[in-house]
Specification:
Fumarase C, Chain B, domain 1, single chain, Fumarase C, Chain A, domain 2
Length: about 500
């Protein structure tokens, strides 16, 4: 990322700027823009604009020479053998965008929609898609002005890219369908007019260039990677709190153990748990060996951390790659027809990640059960109840069981459900977008399990009355208690869960 400071408006707040151009993007760059921490800009270097122009000129030369160019001189998909006469080539971009307007399901929220535009812009900016620089400028302006495509989340098989969901971005550029502005759905043309922007008439290949790529699955994957990383760190802290609460054996987290089977994620998770545990107490542990959900926690969280180390490079390769078809290589004056739109790597990364996330949810669910049973908690009150007439966290155990079961159910690999579709042209597809959506749902469930487990750990601390032995535990306990009081009598607890979830998602814990 190239970053500096700009102003949104004279006298306005300063924001980081993410520059799209020669420098590769990271997951963090996409999220900085999508979460409103950074504005977006195109590389001002003349060489960048020259590369974009060269790609468009190479496409126009190919057409002038009578060469076949998929999606420009031919129909699309299984209609590739249908010739498109020159006088109808300007109709094809509109028709392609329009007939793919068949998405279903909930709309992506503003953060996800912004990430989609950033990711699509990144691939078009490589200069191999044959689009005009004006199109990239428009995408950049739409993001900075908060005029976003309304993208239904369902309808992509992830192998001619995300054709249907990305058609909603092409439609917004052309002033059709709807826009998401300030959290409200408005007519796209009206949104552009209010911003003094005229709809762009999409030139040959431009709607195909917008639509034929993996930008939706990759954008959702960026969010998933970030959330999974934060879940892993929180799970280690909750584990440490659980070990302290049940008077567990800290020797299980001795670094010498992990050095003898040094999976990097396990080594890291063990170090985080040791740090969160703080100095050892003077008393002996309650037992020689704790149950697996405590003793093996570094190994469970370690799988997630190693899955992240595997997933992140795949996502960033996808983010910085060219996933269009056909590709226009201005240097060799070639039109390259291939399959870079196939989302198999993202699908595999998301399928692996969601399984590792669900396993962490299962771990935290097991730890909660240990805290709530006197025979496994070293004598804490049953269900962590404050008094004999109260029920404590009895119902929360049922909730975490339900949440965890749903998360585990969703770990079936989406990529295993490849289907032949579109008249058997798309006869092997990735299902990468479904995998990414599944992963985000599993994360949502796992984060909720973590919030409940953290509430339970704080309740156990209060019932013990022991001081937290480390700054990490004290910080977590104080942050939770600033938002949620100790459970001293039966009350609704959905609000408690929501408050802790908000703290986690805001980065406050």
């Amino acid at each position: 990322m190239s970053a500096d400071s700009i102003r949104e408006a004279p006298g306005g707040p300063r924001r980081e700027r993410v520059v799209i151009g020669a420098a590769p993007l990271r997951v963090e760059d996409v999220l900085a823009v999508s979460r409103g921490r950074a504005a977006l800009a195109l590389d001002p270097e003349p060489g960048f604009r020259a590369r974009l122009a060269a790609g468009r000129e190479a496409l126009e030369r190919a057409l002038a020479q009578g060469r076949s160019v998929y999606g420009v001189t031919t129909g699309v998909g299984s209609s590739v053998s249908t010739a498109v006469p020159p006088d109808e080539r300007k109709l094809l971009p509109q028709n392609l965008m329009r007939f793919h307007g068949c998405g279903t399901g909930r709309l992506l929220d503003a953060e996800a929609a912004t990430a989609v535009v950033v990711v699509r812009l990144a691939t078009l900016a490589r200069g191999f898609s044959g689009v005009r620089p004006e199109l990239l400028e428009r995408l950049c302006e739409l993001v900075n002005r908060g005029i976003l495509p309304c993208i239904p989340e369902e309808g992509s098989v992830g192998a001619s890219g995300d054709l249907t969901p990305l058609s909603y971005l092409a439609a917004l550029v052309a002033g059709e369908r709807e826009a998401l502005v300030g959290g409200k759905v408005v007519d796209a043309r009206d949104a552009l007019e209010r911003a003094s922007l005229a709809p762009l008439s999409l030139e040959p290949k431009e709607s195909l260039a917008i639509m034929n790529g993996t930008s939706v699955m990759t954008a959702l994957g960026c969010d998933a990677v970030d959330r999974a990383e934060r879940l892993a760190t929180l799970a280690c802290a909750i584990t440490a709190m659980g070990v302290h609460a049940v008077r567990g054996n800290r020797a299980h987290f001795d670094g010498r153990i992990f050095a003898l089977k040094p999976h990097p994620g396990t080594v890291q998770a063990g170090a985080w748990i040791r740090e969160a545990l703080g100095p050892a107490p003077g008393s002996a542990p309650a037992r020689l060996q704790d149950r697996y959900s405590l003793r093996c926690a570094p190994h469970v969280v370690g799988v997630l951390l190693d899955a992240l180390s595997f997933a992140r490079p795949l996502l960033e390769t996808e983010l910085n790659g060219v996933d269009d078809n056909p590709l226009i290589d201005a240097e060799s004056d070639a039109v390259l027809h291939g399959g870079n739109f196939y989302g198999g790597h993202v699908a595999f990364a998301m399928d692996a990640l969601k399984a590792a996330v669900a396993s962490v949810a299962d771990l935290l669910d097991r730890q909660l059960q240990l805290l709530c049973a006197p025979q496994t908690s070293d004598g804490l009150p049953e269900n962590l109840a404050h008094g004999p007439s109260h029920h404590g966290m009895k119902a929360l155990q049922i909730s975490t069981s339900a949440l965890t079961a749903e998360a585990l159910k969703l770990t079936m690999p989406a990529a295993s459900f490849s289907r032949s579709t579109e008249s058997h042209n798309q006869d092997k597809v990735s299902m990468g977008t479904i995998a990414a959506r599944d992963c985000l749902r599993v994360l949502e469930l796992a984060e909720t399990v973590a919030a409940i487990a953290l509430l339970a750990a704080c309740q156990a601390f209060d019932l013990r009355g022991d001081p937290a032995p480390s700054a990490r535990m004290r910080g977590l306990h104080e942050a939770v208690r600033a938002a949620v009081p100790m459970l001293e009598a039966d009350r609704r607890q959905d609000v408690d869960i929501a408050r802790v979830l908000a703290l986690h998602r805001e980065g406050a814990i």
